[in-house]
């Protein structure tokens, strides 16, 4: 079965994480804390397991090293951010999961162009893509509605600072790969992924060379601005949700 964008399998793919999350949250809401933690651990395990399977599969298929090292946002969310948030309920990591991992994971289901490259949805790579992004969304919604983390704007600012530092680090990492002829799109901090709207931002600026690094300041600022807008929007939705729960 070959995947095609905006057909009924794609629409099912887009709505299924919300349906599964609703059922799971409804079932677990009245359960004991131990049971809630157990289900959370299962979600974290599934994410880490399929991230490992994906990387092994890509390694033996000769994918670029930058695609195997899981530092792209959704990959980082799958093996680190979302499991860490679920297992520890760390406020800063939980906020990053809610404000960035959740929209990034879901956007990857809406714009699932990568699935078109597989001959069948039953290929290992396609299965991993679907499960990882579905469970990023499910995991964050489970965190949000079962554990109900509490944040204030100070937590938001510190979480945002963590991401800015990571963004700057990815500029160095991306340059190292690109200088050795390996495409690298970690956080899209140096190059936009072909065919995405980020290409427009990239073309609005120009490359400069600083300390051996290639940077595009206008592009970098625009990517950070979009990330900030997404995080602020999600944080605003979180505050509205919290207010409605209290009332």
Give a summary of the structure in a few sentences.
By secondary structure, the protein is mostly helical. It contains 10 helices and 2 strands; from the N terminus they run H-H-H-H-H-H-H-H-H-E-E-H.
Structure description:
The chain has 247 residues and is an all-alpha fold. Helices cover 73% and strands 2% of the residues. It contains 10 helices and 2 strands. The protein has helices spanning 8-28, 33-60, 65-68, 73-88, 91-110, 113-116, 124-147, 153-179, 198-204, 217-246, and strands at residues 208-210, 213-215. A two-stranded antiparallel sheet has the order 1-2. It is globular.
Give the topology, please:
Blueprint: H1 8-28, H2 33-60, H3 65-68, H4 73-88, H5 91-110, H6 113-116, H7 124-147, H8 153-179, H9 198-204, E1 208-210, E2 213-215, H10 217-246
Antiparallel strand pairs: 1-2
Index terms:
about 250 residues, single chain, 2 domains, two-stranded antiparallel ribbon
């Amino acid at each position: 079965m070959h995947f095609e964008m905006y057909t009924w399998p794609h629409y099912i793919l887009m709505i299924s994480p919300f349906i599964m999350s609703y059922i799971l949250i409804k079932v677990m809401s009245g359960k004991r804390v131990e049971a809630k933690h157990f289900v959370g651990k299962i979600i974290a395990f599934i994410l880490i397991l399929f991230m490992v399977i994906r990387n092994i599969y890509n390694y033996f298929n000769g994918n670029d090293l930058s695609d195997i090292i899981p530092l792209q946002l959704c990959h980082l969310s799958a093996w680190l951010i979302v499991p860490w948030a679920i297992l520890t309920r760390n406020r800063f990591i939980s906020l990053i999961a809610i404000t960035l991992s959740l929209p990034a994971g879901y956007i990857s289901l809406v714009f699932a162009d990568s699935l078109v490259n597989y001959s069948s949805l039953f290929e290992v790579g396609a299965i991993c893509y679907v499960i990882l992004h579905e469970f990023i969304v499910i995991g964050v919604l489970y965190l949000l509605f079962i554990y109900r983390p509490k944040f204030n704007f100070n937590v938001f600012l510190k979480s945002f600072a963590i991401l800015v530092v990571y963004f700057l680090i990815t500029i160095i990492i991306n340059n190292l790969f690109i200088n050795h002829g390996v495409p690298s799109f970690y956080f899209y901090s140096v190059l936009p992924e072909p065919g995405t709207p980020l290409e427009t931002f990239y073309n609005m600026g120009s490359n400069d060379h600083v300390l051996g690094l290639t940077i595009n300041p206008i592009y970098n600022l625009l990517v950070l601005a979009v990330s900030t807008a997404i995080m602020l929007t999600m944080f605003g939705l979180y505050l509205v949700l919290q207010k409605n729960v209290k009332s």
